[in-house]
Design brief:
This protein is of the alpha+beta class. The chain has a domain of 77 residues: Orthogonal Bundle (Hypothetical Oxidoreductase Yiak, Chain: A, domain 1). The chain contains twelve helices and 13 strands. Strands 2-3-4-12-5-7-8 form a seven-stranded mixed sheet, with helices on both faces. A four-stranded mixed sheet has the order 6-11-9-10, with no helix packed on it. It has a two-stranded antiparallel sheet with strand order 1-13. Helix 1 runs antiparallel to helix 2 and helix 1 packs parallel to helix 12. The longest helix has 19 residues. The termini are close together. 50% of the residues are buried. The mean pLDDT is 95.
Amino acid sequence: MANTSQPVTIGADQLTDMIAATFVAAGASDQEGQAIGENLVEANLSGHDSHGVVRVPRYLRDQQRGHMKFGQTVETVIDGGAFALLDGQFGFGQVVGRQAMDIGLQKATEHGVGLVALRHAGHLGRIGAWAERACDAGIVSIHFVNVARSMLVAPFGASQRRMSTAPVTIGVVNPDGDHFILDFATSRIAEGKALIALKGGPKPPEGSLVNDQGQYTADPHALYGDVAAGEVPNPRSGSGALVAMGDHKGSGLAIACELLAGALTGSGASGPGEGPYNGMLSIYVNPAAIDDGHDFGPAVADYIDFVRSANPVAGVSDVKIPGDPERIARLERTKNGIPLPVATWQSLCDAATEFGVAEIPDL
């Protein structure tokens, strides 16, 4: 195991195998363990460490507490042809999220458009991964997400928590090039980025959090409080909050996510309580169904090229579109390995050891 302050670097396949083995040892099926491992490592490969393997101890803790359950499938509550209401039955998001997406893609293929309301899902991971998958299938998608029982974010002008990080994701397929993948939390930073900072990773931007005195800060302890050695950090333990992005605009968008993904789906808007879970309202559109000859594909490709052709400001090498940073990170990390803070790596080793995983990479 690592005994240095320098980040540990590990290959994606090695890391996936280790994570999958840990979840299988904890009670997942081989297929489910593999799905969880692949999804979390894909987030790290894409440069989103906040949604990657740093979450393994929390997933295991939530499963042991009964907040997330192995072996679940989505239940169809309502099937209205082009729309469906699904219940994830608190299954792991890597499994029930994929099932919900399969239903949405099928409906968009059949009807031209599909709306899927998913409630009571375990953590769905990086939502951009679902939009990428839809684009690869030739389908445009829009996703509004909330986290019930996960008050982490203060509304604009407040120092108390009232909202979840409430992600919004839009994926527009580009048949002739790189897809447009807009994926962001409506908090200034995702909760996982504060967790990474707490574990020795990069410090978040100043003003990303607010303490209980109403002062903006970059200290992740505002969210987690004091964390004892060996304790899994709990973002509900701090007396402060994350800050909404974009002042009143981002705050309003976060409230919209709570209402659309929480209230409309029946999953519930964010509020007090233990055992957080996701709600997601997804819209899937088949471009071929509404292209009357106006050449959707070339129009997307031409506009993306036009945006990228803009002159960059000083200090910026080139203009990028949403989705480019993830593509660049995947190329670099696939080649050179995934860097992990020592504390994150140690937590993965501890989890694997706890569940009796025999083979842990010696890095």
